[in-house]
């Protein structure tokens, strides 16, 4: 298998699960967990700044007046990354999963601008379309790169958010050490002239290798994926690889993320996190190969109203690998918000 950025297996950090502080809703109150390869929710395009942004509306059984939730994927992902979690929470919310600019079925952003702030502005425009007028604000659930975008959004538009859930957010970590799976070469992407070589390298990877490689990189236990799951992922990957901007979007978005790590003062991560005024849940897997699980507790502590769920044996995408436990923590977070509906105020537990 070809891997554009080879990364070793992350060290065993399952003991970090003992640091969890988040409450969990009863597992009995959720439907059956859907397959990773289940048919995705239907979608539509929204025209934002002259670019098409693809938005999936997850079928919901939530009562009238239920809060709206926006699901935001990570680097090289898509809105389908949240189909399982969104389905489990569909009785509590009206959910929308977005393809970030340049990913999934969304067009590249105007001017090829992939900065965190620029993508955050697109999310703000999406919320204006689906939930800016919802009393109490919108829940945002975001993974990896999407987590950093969601934090920026939470600070810029605090009046729009109800809660924030960050799944393995790609928080700054300049310790390019191989013991956590970091690749020191990633820093080279900030140098001039590196875009074309990086795109060429990505272009040389087949759809099958890419689908398998992403599974091995993002899952703590890739064996939970069936052969059918991998075939479906390969087919979707093949469709996306036919888009002319697919590799450029990945590299430019990664550059935008890394540039955000160099911010100082009030725009630095900790200062930004300290400005988030809504209840915040941080979810992390102990086998995350992309973002060091040892950052989980400090990240949760950076938010004024933060709580933490660390999942043993899980990788970078807990919303896909362990959607039930993730949904239980999200439901408990939502139930604790002042003004939550009577149907969502049942007692929670840490069991």
UniProtKB/TrEMBL annotation:
Superkingdom of this protein's organism: Bacteria
GO molecular function terms listed in the Swiss-Prot or TrEMBL record: hydrolase activity
Residues annotated as domain AB hydrolase-1: 71-328
Cellular-component GO terms for this entry: membrane
InterPro entries in UniProt: AB_hydrolase_1, AB_hydrolase_fold, AB_hydrolase_sf
Key words of the record: Hydrolase
Name of the protein described by the UniProt record: Alpha/beta hydrolase
Organism: Nakamurella aerolata
